[in-house]
Amino acid sequence: MPGPVPNREEDLARPRSRKGGDQQAVTKGVSRPTRVPHADPDWHPIAKRMWDSLKVSGQADFYEQSDWAIAFSLMDDLSHYKKSGKRSGQMLQVIMTSLSNLLVTEADRRRVRIELADPEPETDDESVTAIADYRAQLGVAG
Hints:
single chain
């Protein structure tokens, strides 16, 4: 989606659905299990670092096997580009566009309405904690 980066959902005065305009229906399919290939040991260190970051980034939750195949090919191209003595501006542009298509940056994700939130901290329910403390004081096994 070209244009400026949209605001995050929580920054809006009202939900996008209430703003009117054309709301396109979503076509759904079935997600299949994926297997992430191992990085090529001959890749340039920057390509290896990018690959490792893709595996642990939140957008990887949305990657299918074909996305991983494209990412693998892209890391190979990035490695070739970084190792090349003569670098092409056009090749760099293609690499950057491909990274954008994989939703690598927050701006890329926000353009397609994907927002990654920090996980909620795990907290115990206060009553469960109070009972556990009480049992511990009494020496009762829980």
